[in-house]
Known about the structure:
The complex is a heterodimer of chains A (282) and B (534). By secondary structure, chain A is mainly alpha-helical. Chain A folds into three domains: 103 residues; 81 residues, no CATH class; 54 residues, no CATH class. Helix content of chain A is 73%, strand content 0%. Chain A contains 14 helices and no strands. The longest helix of chain A has 25 residues. By secondary structure, chain B is α+β, with helices and mostly antiparallel strands. In chain B, α10 crosses α18, α16 packs antiparallel against α18 and α18 runs antiparallel to α19. Chain B starts with a helix and ends in a 5-residue tail after the last helix. At the A-B interface, α1, α2, α4, α6 and α8 of A face α1, α18 and α19 of B.
Amino acid sequence: xxxxxxxxxxxxxxxxxxxxxxxxxxxxxxxxxxxxxxxxxxxxxxxxxxxxxxxxxxxxxxxxxxxxxxxxxxxxxxxxxxxxxxxxxxxxxxxxxxxxxxxxxxxxxxxxxxxxxxxxxxxxxxxxxxxxxxxxxxxxxxxxxxxxxxxxxxxxxxxxxxxxxxxxxxxxxxxxxxxxxxxxxxxxxxxxxxxxxxxxxxxxxxxxxxxxxxxxxxxxxxxxxxxxxxxxxxxxxxxxxxxxxxxxxxxxxxxxxxxxxxxxxxxxxxxxxxxxxxxxxx
Amino acid sequence: xxxxxxxxxxxxxxxxxxxxxxxxxxxxxxxxxxxxxxxxxxxxxxxxxxxxxxxxxxxxxxxxxxxxxxxxxxxxxxxxxxxxxxxxxxxxxxxxxxxxxxxxxxxxxxxxxxxxxxxxxxxxxxxxxxxxxxxxxxxxxxxxxxxxxxxxxxxxxxxxxxxxxxxxxxxxxxxxxxxxxxxxxxxxxxxxxxxxxxxxxxxxxxxxxxxxxxxxxxxxxxxxxxxxxxxxxxxxxxxxxxxxxxxxxxxxxxxxxxxxxxxxxxxxxxxxxxxxxxxxxxxxxxxxxxxxxxxxxxxxxxxxxxxxxxxxxxxxxxxxxxxxxxxxxxxxxxxxxxxxxxxxxxxxxxxxxxxxxxxxxxxxxxxxxxxxxxxxxxxxxxxxxxxxxxxxxxxxxxxxxxxxxxxxxxxxxxxxxxxxxxxxxxxxxxxxxxxxxxxxxxxxxxxxxxxxxxxxxxxxxxxxxxxxxxxxxxxxxxxxxxxxxxxxxxxxxxxxxxxxxxxxxxxxxxxxxxxxxxxxxxxxxxxxxxxxxx
Lengths: 282, 534
């Protein structure tokens, strides 16, 4: 009663299973086994391999010698970027951070910072007021951690963006200057002064903006992109507010270090104008 | 019984093929005639212009001569299908070892499918041994500090760039001599317009179908946008005193929303007049023509000039049956009676980055060999071969450009270009649908400005909103990267490189977040200006 094709079909099924099993085992064995460790998990996160890093952190759960707070933080912070990004993942990460934030140690501070980040940027709609409170609380703790001290930059940005009126914006920015008192790290101070300086110059307060930018430069700006922007704004703000010495110093510094920049020719002209105005009349 | 045997033979053959396929996937090797194993490195790109494939072939041969167990296989893909091809290859895990970075590669794709090469470029390039760059870290051996291969959002180097690029005017020198009696190329906008008029007169007097400038929807805007940007140079400085002297779409939209400029501002109208003046010397309806149409016009001697990038130079020279001259874009000078009022004169190209950048895919079966080939590509000897064969501008310091590439070296004198009206998709769509109001017979700058006023602000806002989505996504990615760096740094406080990377990442995040907040503020300002709910 069987059809002419029934025999090969029956024979094929176990054969196909055999091929799949053997093939998978064969391919698996051809790949080098990757041992999971906290180091490799963090390295994967560093190069944007978030799914892989997240899986690694999960695999490390309960393993001997693994710091559970570090591992838990790794699992939560990679969850923020696991593909596909889902609101469920963010809620899970939020819960994990909240549990970690109960202690005052590195992972507690970082978890508090990322809770604020979630409220600032990951929830829809954003919970800006809640984020502001969290950032302020973190700054009061004097954590001495440069990433956590980025809370000051974020608070200043939130204040700046909330005001459209230039005069009021200057006011809120000037009031934000006191946030620097809580900053203990060089990086935290530098990024705060740099951001506030750019904001004040944009708002039209060249004098206060210049002070902030010079403070940022004194802390050491190491990113060429940030340094270029800061030095040009310092030079231009100084020129426009009549502080020729500072302007000339920064034009020279810029032209020496960043000769190959689309703005160099214009800056050289501005420097020449200052030098011409300073040279004694014939 | 016979059927059963045939079936068994068929199944056996299938099994053999299956096992062989597994082997091929697991160990993708071939052998040379003398039995040595050979690894193949595949390199894909979209540069089908003249000279590139030949140069890459030559570079492959040089590398193979040094590494007999390696074969370099070039995969040129036409630009119009490059994105689709690329996505299929990347997602399917079948991508070549090395891919040209640019078209179709967002930060997201770069992060997921490409390996950073930062560690590689922080050390001297062994292929520079015996040159003046022998002890110089690879990233410092490029004319732009290798910024052309660096991704500021991901904070990593991903590409090795081979060439510099620029946009220039190409001239038919034989025709120029017939028209003017000399081969003197115009250097100012006035001389350029005078030459265009001479060409028109020459065409009329000889009965020859001749247009001064070969235009197309590709070549026309290249020239006219650059000229337009010369008219917004002073406006940009006025709007942003001490603002860093750089154009950016956030400020452009914010100033527009605040009423500080509009398409009807005098400088903008001047830029439009400048465009219309030039457009009258291109073929009628040039905005309907393709890039190839304009090139044909030029190489067939039906146009005296064409504006195009350095990437077209070798193709144009090889196709043209006449001698080709190249000169910079003739910008209006500050004393130009019509267009001098709003310009600062020439435009600087000092900020141009090295291009034709090649990156390493995570799918590479031979990442170490592929990395080594990238090192070779970025070396001084290889870049010399590159410029000599392709005649494109070199990217590595100390490599003398081929004489044909010399006119394309960046011009470092001149001011920062002003802002453009449309650089992003939505604004370009509005711009494109209104352009006939400028170039048409009944068109005028005023009519074009009025037409743009209706939709340009909305389109610019839409573009900024899209760009903001992408920059927000980058900030979120950086959140996890920063967490990784801060923890690793806490565990290894003396690791200098880690500290440096963390420090730069912090600054990049701070700067990027500032951009995000300012973009959101600009969008709110735009909504307020149009009385919309945010």
